[in-house]
Amino acid sequence: MDHSRKPFNSTTTTIKKAEKITHLVLDVDGVFTDGTITYTKDGEHTKSFDMRDGMGLEILRQFGVEVMIMTSEQSELVAKRMQKLQIKQVFLGVKDKYTLLKTLSKQQGFSLNNVAYVGDDVNDMSNICSVGWSLAPLNAMTEIKTIADVVLSKPSGAGAIREACQFIKNYNKRY
Predict the structure, then answer these.
(1) Is residue 3's pLDDT more than 70?
(2) How many C-beta atoms lie closer than 10 Å to residue 159's C-beta?
(3) I want to staple 82 with a disulfide (CB 3.0 to 4.6 A). Which of 68, 90, 97, 117 is the partner?
(4) What does DSSP assign to residue 80?
(5) 20 forms bridges with which residues in the sheet?
(6) Global pTM?
(7) If 0-12 CB within 10 Å is exposed, 13-18 middle and 19+ buried, where does residue 7 land?
(8) C-alpha distances in Å from residue 128, one per residue of 48, 65, 68, 134
(9) pLDDT tens across 73-128, in order?
(10) CA distance 171 to 134
């Protein structure tokens, strides 16, 4: 796992600064899952989730880290899985994840510097470039792995979230 930091390049005065991680924001397809969706004539049928990822999130919450879900998909399967994981802040059908994250940070009083974000594709790019720590599964798009602070050694749907949780737990212990 590469833990080196990449510089934040921007024409604005925004400076990316990592602080203690209080919030973990996760994409779903390509992070929780391997990105595969099975359809039947009735629509979305199955998605596969790694149980160890769920346990990692539970452990992280015990250390006081708030977990949030942001996905562009409107999926009943995702809603049910997040309910089972007892994740309360689940945002489905989000087309502009950056605006939502900025709005939530203002409403709930946390800084983007306190956020770790795990994403895998171009619709995660703005958040990856603006949070304190950004992480990408091993099988994320090349564009995302190039700008992420950490490229995880595990692929999506196969332990990437659990690895991210361990990184956050270890980072916060040292912070």
Answers:
(1) no
(2) 19
(3) 90
(4) H
(5) none
(6) 0.86
(7) exposed
(8) 24, 18, 15, 5
(9) 888 888 999 999 999 999 999 999 999 999 999 999 999 999 999 999 999 999 99
(10) 13
Q: Which two tokens stand for residue 164?
A: 């991210």
149-160, pLDDT tens digit by residue?
999 999 998 999
Collapsing DSSP to helix, strand or coil, 69 comes out as: strand
Cα separation, 139 vs 145, whole angstroms:
9
Give the helix/strand (H/E) hosting 146. helix 142-147
DSSP class of residue 140? S
Q: Residue 1 above 80 pLDDT? A: no
Report the alpha-carbon distance of residue 146 to residue 53 in Å, rounded. 24
In sign, the C-alpha dihedral spanning 74, 77, 79, 82 is: negative
E strand residue ranges, the chain: 23-26, 38-40, 43-46, 66-70, 89-91, 115-118, 133-136, 150-151
Q: 């790019």: which residue's tokens?
A: 125
